[in-house]
Structure formats: structure tokens, C-alpha cells
From TrEMBL:
InterPro entries recorded: Cyt_c-like_dom (IPR009056), Cyt_c-like_dom_sf (IPR036909), PQQ_b-propeller_rpt (IPR018391), PQQ_MeOH/EtOH_DH (IPR017512), PQQ_rpt_dom (IPR002372), Quinoprotein_ADH-like_sf (IPR011047), Quinoprotein_DH_CS (IPR001479)
Record's protein name: Alcohol dehydrogenase
Positions contributing to pyrroloquinoline quinone binding: E67, R119, G185, A186, T248, K340, N402, W403, I553
Needed co-factor(s): heme c; Ca(2+); pyrroloquinoline quinone
Species of provenance: Pluralibacter gergoviae
Length: 717
């Protein structure tokens, strides 16, 4: 039996390594271990893509953010959805074969910053393996959907900080029979780590912590050595010993068979505020770094830190890609990376040696990087936690590139980056206490919002941008750029048909010429498209598939201003296309819910106090300044704000916990909760007429900006 299991593992890994021999399948998150998201299928190409139509679609039961990349194995498509659900369909007809609901408790929603999303599953030896939002890793029988094994990935006895706010929303990767998974939660309080589990049994094989434990205490983990000798000395005195320090590995995990290394992308510090976190001392390894490990043991091999002294939420958790390219006329096997900080990095895949970096979007926090070491030349004013002054940063906390996957075409030699510009104004806070609920960023949340000023709003809207950038990694320069209406657009697929596919926040799904960027095809899908498409084939017939659904941190926190990228009503589904498709989507209510006339009376003094509490505890989900971005309920139109008792039952007691809205009576007093209600009543009255009028012209989208040029005062008007 042991020999049979080992052979099966070896065969599955070999199939992924040789994925181009099975171009009809999509066997792992990025199709191949290289994470290039390039399909060799070319039946759909630049000559006939205009004939593409919907072959089939299936609605999901969670109208929230959909970020999943489906898998296709032997004619079956496996899709993961919000709340960590899994569905298996016949890939040619859309017939539902089975579905699995891990029944994630609703109260776990408060642990994550960025919606209860899921980005995908792994396939290995007849099993579909998924990470659940509450931190489990579950292996399902690929034919039946029945659980094979389940394990909690969050150790109960580890040194993880006082808050321990952990979630899993990234896709697992499997290498040499080891399932590798990280986690998120650093915005609230967490200590990052990545774990390797046996793919057949779920037994823990190894664990690597990304930041040291307080007092350099060992974890009895494979990371003890490098943390003790390399990382601990880069941390100063600060509340990282209470928060956990951050460094969660919430997305990027790439296995490279050529070097036999797993590259993990490490996230931001906890809290963001560098002075509060570490006394403004040290580079804080391994935050903002790529770390190379051995897949079977987790042994440390090398690291490269892209963002020392991180205080901007410049994670390195964005997709890590490997490729063979010519540099200085010589072939090099490299790692290519476009993290949040705005620079495109090329490293030697075997050694981690820095080869080059160039900004792919506008950057003002650093004046380039050192050409020898790759260390950014940070602008002194950008160190807001040390200067004590606000800093308007380009990129902002959502990065020049976020989780949305990029793609690489070996035919063109271009990396296609879903890039964006969303500036952020960092206003340092001074409170080092850790809240049990709510964001723990070390920022003055009462001052990062903006007054409801039309001039400021118009100015800021002009700064919100999105692009598809075809980046030439050899020249470290753009080959072409496609402008979009706004940021937070979808991931990218490149194909041998000389095509690049990408969906947009305005609900349009596009195909471009991979060589020039010319738009060749477009179809409206009714809701925003954030997920990356895939290509597959059944019986020689090619399909393109993509998940549809609006969500994630951008609309949750940005609120109404996020709708400037395009007004769509959230309707989540999976849509599949073919050249002979004959389906159409059903009609949809394009205006969404209409505002409800709010109560007239509110206490202005209480509302002013309520704004600060709202920004601390509510804005991360319900939007800046009380205005929703279209994912979760807009509290201005909630019936609960009309009655203090009803409002307290929801916000204090947690009457809607099963749906993800937990109670906050352990974090706020009844009086503080009432001030939030007063604030919402005031905001509803101030914006009601504008909201009604906006629905008469969907281009005039109401919204309250979260960031802008001057936030020294903040507050509401």
C-alpha cells in the first residue's frame, strides 16, 4: 500500500510537471507549477474569438466576492466559491455532479479583512483539497465530494500573539506529496506561518514561521534556525510581541521542480505602524519577502526582502512566477514578481540573487532600488510612522498589483499584469493596545476617511486607475498598456491563440490580442469579474471559464467610491464560453436595492463620536463613512437604524452572527454602539437624495472617498 501511494503521488506530480502534455486539463492553481497561467490551447484564437458565446453557466448561492480559479481534471470542472464551498460540474455541459459545504461558522467572518472569499483548490491523487475560511484543510474524494481527511491548520499551542485572528482563503499547492498552505489575519493580529501536510493522510510534516517569537523563543519548528540567526535581530522593541508581528502567507506559494524549491510570499506587519510594531528599528524579517524552502521538509534555503521596514501593507503575497528568459543574451531560470510595492522583480530562481527591478506603476514612496542589492531607496517622508505626519502614498495599501493573478506568454515574452492605482493616506496612530475585534493597524482610523466634499471626491476619483500592462521582463518596460475605467479588475489568462482574457469591475469580460493589446471581443456578465479565467478542452473542444462576483477588500472598505469603476449588481456565478455557445444570461435588476427614506432626527454630537467607532469596527466591511461598496448591506438603509433596541440586538448581541455579522458588546459599550446608530442615521439623511438621483444615471455613482490629498481633520460633515 505504501508503494502504491508513493507511486500515485509521483504520477500526480509528474502530470503537473508535464502539464503541456495534458493541455485539456487545468491541474493546479496556475495550470503549471510555474504559475504562468498560459494555456497551449489555440482552437479559440485571434481570428475567431469574435464568435465566442456562452456555452453554459451556473449560479452560485453566495452573492459575494468570487476569486476562485477552477480546476479541470478528466472532464470535470471543480469550482470553489465564497464561504469555502466546492462544486463539481461536467465541464462540457455544466451538469452539477456534487457540492460540498464545509459549514464555516458565520462568526469567523470578523477574523478576515477582505471578504469570506476562496481562491481555489488543489488536485492530488484523486482528491480535491481546499482550505476553509475557518482554518481547516479538507481533502475530498474527487468523484463523490465526500471528505477523506480534515485537519486544523492553526496550531492551538503555538506562540501566535494575543488576538490570533486567522483565516485561510488562498489555494493550497501540492509538491512531492506535501500540501502547502498559509493563512491571513495580520490586519487584526496574527503571527504568520506556512505548513506542509501529507497529501494522503493530512498529517503535519513541517511548519515554518515567518517572524520570530517573543524573546526569540523556539517553536520546535523547522524555522527555528533562520528565525534565531537571521530574523530576530531585525526586530526592535514594540507591540509585535502582543500582535504576533504579522507576516502571514495568505496567497503566493509556488513550487519549482527545476530547483526543487517552494517560494512563499510573506505579507505585511502587524500592526502596519512600524514605530508601534518594532520601535522603528530593524528591517523586520521576513515581512515583505520571498522565502525559498524545501517542499518535503520546509528547510530554509534563501530569502529576498522586497520591502524592508514595511509600514504600508506592501505584501509580497502576490503570485510568484518562474520562467526561462534571456538576460544579457544568456538563458536564466528566474523568479518574476510584481508585489504590492509597485516594482517588478527578477531574481535567480536557484539562489535568490537579485537581478533587476523596475517600477511597473507610479511609485512615490521610493526612488528606485539599489541596482546591486535591490533594496528600495525609501523616501524619508514615506516613513510616516517615524515622522508622525500623514503620507499620501502611490501605490497605496491595495498595491500596484494585488491578488488578481498575472499571466505570462512564452510566445510574446510578456507578463500581463492586472495593475492599478489606488492611493492611500497613512495617518499614524499612537494607541498600541490591541483590540479583540476590529482592525489593529496602528493608524488613526478617524482621520483616514474624507469629508463628503464634491471637489475632493472628484479629485480622488481621477486618481483611481486600472490597466492591463504587458510587461517585457527582459527590457523591464511595458510593451503596451490597456486602460480600464477603474481599479480592482480581474486576473489574467494568456493562450497560444495569441489571446489574453481579463474581466473588469464594470462586468465586462474581454479578449485582447496578446501582441498588441487590441480588444478583439467583449461580453457583459452583469456583475464584476475579479477572478482569473481558465482554458480547457473536452473531447477536443476548447472552453474558457471564469467566476463572476463583486467583493474583496476594495469595495468593502472603499465603500461607495469603489463603484466608480462601474455600477453592477452583485450576482455570483460561473460562466463558460465556447465558439458554438448558444446561451444567454437572464435579465437582472441593474439598479439594485433602492434607498429607504431614513429617520429625520439624530444627535449630531453622538454622530460625530459614532464616526470614529464606525471607522474602527464597521468600515472594513460596510464601507467608508457609512456607504457600502455593493457587497454587504448598506447600513444607511437598514431597518435596524430606526430603532435603538433592534440596532443593539444586531450590533451588540450579534443576532445575525450566523450570516457573518458578529456582536460587538465585548468590544464596545451600549452607549458607543448607539453613537454608531446616530452616525448612520445622520449619513442616511445627508445622502438619501443623492443616492436616489444617482440611480437615474448609473454613471453618477454615489460614493464617499476613503483617501485623498488632505486628511488631517477627517470626520463627517
Amino acid at each position: 500500500m505504501a508503494f502504491a501511494a508513493a507511486s500515485a503521488q509521483e504520477d500526480t506530480g509528474r502530470e503537473i510537471i508535464n502539464a503541456d502534455k495534458r493541455p485539456q486539463d487545468w491541474l493546479t492553481y496556475g495550470r503549471t507549477y510555474s504559475e504562468q497561467r498560459y494555456s497551449p490551447l489555440d482552437s479559440i484564437n485571434e481570428r475567431n474569438v469574435g464568435q465566442l458565446k456562452i456555452a453554459w453557466y451556473q449560479d452560485f448561492d453566495t452573492n459575494r466576492g468570487q476569486e476562485g480559479t477552477p480546476l479541470v481534471v478528466d472532464g470535470v470542472l471543480y469550482a470553489t466559491t465564497n464561504w469555502s464551498k466546492v462544486r463539481a460540474y461536467k465541464a462540457d455541459t455544466g451538469e452539477l455532479l456534487w457540492q460540498y459545504d464545509p459549514r464555516v461558522p458565520g462568526d469567523t467572518a470578523v477574523r478576515g479583512c477582505c471578504d469570506t472569499v476562496n481562491r481555489g483548490a488543489a488536485y492530488w491523487n484523486g482528491k480535491i483539497i481546499i482550505g476553509t475560511f475557518d482554518g481547516r484543510l479538507v481533502a475530498l474524494n474527487a468523484k463523490t465530494g465526500q471528505p477523506v481527511w480534515e485537519v486544523n491548520t492553526i496550531p492551538q499551542d503555538a506562540q501566535l500573539g494575543d488576538v490570533r485572528s486567522y483565516i485561510v482563503d488562498g489555494a493550497p499547492r501540492v509538491a512531492k506529496g506535501v500540501v502547502i498552505i498559509g493563512n491571513g489575519g495580520a490586519e487584526f493580529g496574527a503571527r504568520g506561518f506556512v505548513s506542509g501536510f501529507d497529501a494522503e493522510t493530512g498529517k503535519l510534516r513541517w511548519r515554518f514561521f515567518t517572524v520570530p517569537a517573543p524573546d526569540n523563543k523556539p517553536d520546535r519548528a523547522v524555522s527555528d534556525g533562520p528565525l534565531s540567526t537571521l530574523a530576530y535581530k531585525t526586530w526592535g522593541p514594540g507591540n509585535w510581541v502582543k500582535s504576533g508581528g504579522g507576516g502571514t502567507v495568505w496567497d503566493a506559494i509556488t513550487y519549482d521542480p527545476q530547483t526543487d524549491l517552494v517560494y512563499i510570499g510573506v505579507g505585511n506587519g502587524s500592526p502596519w505602524n512600524y514605530k508601534l510594531r518594532s520601535g522603528g528599528v530593524g528591517d523586520n524579517l521576513f515581512l515583505g519577502s520571498i522565502v525559498a524552502l524545501r517542499p518535503e521538509t520546509g528547510e530554509y534555503v534563501w530569502h529576498f526582502q522586497e520591502t524592508p521596514q514595511d509600514q504600508w501593507d506592501f505584501t509580497s503575497t502576490q503570485q510568484i512566477m518562474t520562467a526561462d528568459i534571456l538576460l544579457d543574451g544568456k538563458p536564466r531560470h528566474v523568479v518574476m514578481h510584481a508585489p504590492k510595492n509597485g516594482f517588478f522583480y527578477i531574481l535567480d530562481a536557484k539562489t535568490g540573487k537579485f537581478l533587476s527591478a523596475k517600477n511597473y506603476v507610479d511609485v512615490n514612496w521610493a526612488k528606485g532600488v539599489d541596482p546591486q542589492t535591490g533594496r528600495p531607496n525609501t523616501v524619508p517622508e514615506a516613513l510616516y510612522s517615524l515622522t508622525g505626519k500623514p503620507w499620501l502614498s502611490f501605490p497605496g495599501d491595495l498595491g500596484g498589483h494585488n491578488w488578481q493573478p498575472m499571466a505570462y506568454s512564452p510566445k510574446t515574452g510578456y507578463v500581463y499584469i492586472p495593475a492599478q492605482q489606488i492611493p492611500f493616506n497613512y495617518v499614524p496612530g499612537t494607541d498600541s493596545n490591541m483590540k479583540s475585534k476590529g482592525l489593529n493597524l496602528g493608524l488613526d482610523m478617524s482621520k483616514i476617511g474624507a469629508p463628503d466634499d464634491a471637489k475632493v471626491k472628484t479629485h480622488f476619483a481621477g486618481l483611481l486607475k486600472g490597466w492591463l500592462i504587458a510587461w517585457d521582463p527582459v527590457k523591464q518596460a511595458p510593451a503596451f498598456t490597456v486602460d480600464h475605467q477603474g481599479p480592482w479588475n480581474g486576473g489574467v489568462l494568456a493562450t497560444a491563440g495569441n489571446l489574453v482574457f481579463q474581466g473588469l469591475t464594470n462586468g465586462l469580460f474581454n479578449a485582447y490580442d496578446a501582441r498588441t493589446g487590441k480588444q478583439l471581443w467583449q461580453i457583459p456578465l452583469q456583475s464584476a469579474v475579479m477572478a482569473a479565467p481558465i482554458a480547457y478542452a473536452v473531447n477536443g473542444k476548447q472552453y474558457i471559464a471564469v467566476e463572476v462576483g463583486w467583493g474583496g477588500i476594495y469595495p468593502l472598505l472603499m465603500g461607495g467610491m469603489a463603484r466608480t469603476g462601474g455600477w453592477t449588481v452583485n450576482k455570483s456565478r460561473l460562466v463558460v464560453f465556447s465558439l458554438d455557445g448558444d446561451k444567454q444570461l437572464p435579465p437582472v435588476n441593474k439598479k439594485g436595492f433602492l434607498p429607504v427614506k431614513p429617520p429625520h432626527d439624530f444627535d449630531a454630537a453622538q454622530a460625530k463620536a459614532g464616526y470614529a467607532h464606525y471607522m474602527d469596527y464597521c468600515a472594513a466591511c460596510h464601507g467608508d463613512n457609512g456607504e457600502s461598496g455593493g457587497v454587504l448591506p448598506d447600513l444607511r438603509w437598514s431597518g435596524a437604524i430606526r430603532d435603538p433596541d433592534a440596532f443593539y440586538r444586531v450590533v451588540g448581541d450579534g443576532a445575525l452572527t450566523a450570516y457573518g455579522m458578529v456582536g460587538f458588546k465585548d468590544a464596545m459599550t451600549p452607549q458607543q454602539i448607539e453613537t454608531i446608530r446616530q452616525f448612520l442615521v445622520g449619513r442616511a439623511g445627508a445622502t438619501y437624495d443623492r443616492e436616489v438621483k444617482a440611480r437615474e444615471n448609473q454613471q453618477q455613482i454615489p460614493g464617499q472617498i476613503i483617501i485623498g490629498p488632505d486628511f488631517s481633520q477627517g470626520g463627517v460633515q
